[in-house]
User: What shape does this take?
Amino acid sequence: MTTIRRVLSYPALLRPTSDTLLLAVDFLGTLVFAIEGGVAAARGNLDLLGALVLAFVTALGGGIIRDVLIGAIPPNSIRDWRYGAIAFFGAIVAFFMHSLVLEIPASFLTMLDAAGLALFAVAGAEKALNYKIHPFLAILMGGITGVGGGTVRDVLLAQVPTVLRADVYATAALAGAAVVVIGLRLKLPRTPVAICGISVCFLLRMVSVWRHWNLPRLAGH
Amino acid sequence: MTTIRRVLSYPALLRPTSDTLLLAVDFLGTLVFAIEGGVAAARGNLDLLGALVLAFVTALGGGIIRDVLIGAIPPNSIRDWRYGAIAFFGAIVAFFMHSLVLEIPASFLTMLDAAGLALFAVAGAEKALNYKIHPFLAILMGGITGVGGGTVRDVLLAQVPTVLRADVYATAALAGAAVVVIGLRLKLPRTPVAICGISVCFLLRMVSVWRHWNLPRLAGH
Amino acid sequence: MTTIRRVLSYPALLRPTSDTLLLAVDFLGTLVFAIEGGVAAARGNLDLLGALVLAFVTALGGGIIRDVLIGAIPPNSIRDWRYGAIAFFGAIVAFFMHSLVLEIPASFLTMLDAAGLALFAVAGAEKALNYKIHPFLAILMGGITGVGGGTVRDVLLAQVPTVLRADVYATAALAGAAVVVIGLRLKLPRTPVAICGISVCFLLRMVSVWRHWNLPRLAGH
Assistant: This one.
């Protein structure tokens, strides 16, 4: 019963503005990540089913890992068929319109990806708090929601995941999640807190791409 | 309580014919996949423990992922020791009788594997429906049950999983699962529906191996 | 309610001696494995976030997999922030004091690692029994607790996990877990049983390193 209530109240993250808005943004994040997965499949010379698998994993893997860890089982994307349908739609678009997708400017794709990352991180942290996870771990759950899908995709492609290698990707997700967790713990109103968190993650990610920021590394390597 | 009831009613997939039959076929699928895992370990020059791990993962990984996702926790193979025992038995047989196993004609092994795939896909879809998963996602769960174990095995061996590369393997599993889900939603009787699903998956897989069918790929790659 | 009770009673493994002792040893195991993860990140030329991720995964991955499989959700390390904090502390120490950590004699690190393995295996098997898992599978759960984190770390680094390749690592974990499970099933007192299990795993591991023991492999490979 409480589980059901929690789930129903969850999309209320931005309710004062609009539930439909949040759902739309959430679906948009899923679509963007799914297209990325489908493009990765086309580039790796995988078949259509590989594209569907990679899109599903990239778009929904992070949320599934978070839901299993916080005890929200079955995960959202196994409970609601629309997430999977959107992921598959994105995969098919990316796969068959591969040449078209490649014409989209890279900077626009990076921006869309950063937007998806920001939304997933913020929504993940908020959901973890709803499930009474400790704030410190709720921030981690936000980060996992944002980067988990891409990590599983990279593992399936037998590559060291991006999150372990390069830049400020996961750090941006954690920063956005931290803003939300701190804001909600200070009992600030939800909508501005969520918008702040999304903005922090999005801007941090975009600036780091633009400025080629990296985290400290050991000298001499 | 309801969980217990669900679990008890689950092996009833083919009850009109025989419970013992289903359990035997389920165990046979586990054994076949375990032998495959053990053979993979012997080929990769792993030690005996590696063979046990790979056999367990190959035979039971798909069902464990499905059970975690649909909320059937602890998963079947953690609840019932016989699954693990069969997996280990298969590993030991494959490991110590490696030269003997290699003498079995490849076509017979492919047939056994297709049979295991078909059964796991059908049983997985049926179990997901029992847990009130949406039909679209129940088909996916059937596919995951069939191919999940082999995928985790390939990830552990640091290889791109077969499911992402080649042929109609996962597609056959999804087709068999779809037959079951559609049949049960149309309230058709269980036994013929299950037999139909198993046959569709099995035949699709065998014919695709025989005819070297592949899914569409992007031209120019 | 029962879940809460189980969790509260869990750290009582060695209660007759001291709860604080067990918790300290558990945290020590987490710290040792986290340092290993951080060192692996520094060696792989990963950035600081990569070190945090690898440390978290190495130190807590095994326990998380076990908890999900036995139904202890959310897992311990998502429920109690101190595990994550210790893992991150270990990562930061290993990362920034890399040259210092490398001066610690390898034999001392191996000993610490064997101690962590022994404790995790014993604690994992005991927890699985508390959750009414079949003894045979409880031994497996002990093994997974000990080696699961390192396995996920190796997968993320796109390497074949150590557990599949070399020596008596996982076997020692399973042996220690088996001692605990058999001892508790025979209703022997907890503290000596736990100490026995830890000793068996620790000694088996140390002797196998010292003597270069390996499990049987197929001749001619």
Notes: Confidence is low (pLDDT under 50) at residues 1-18 of chain C. The first helix of chain C runs from residue 2 to 9. Chain C has one domain: 14-211.
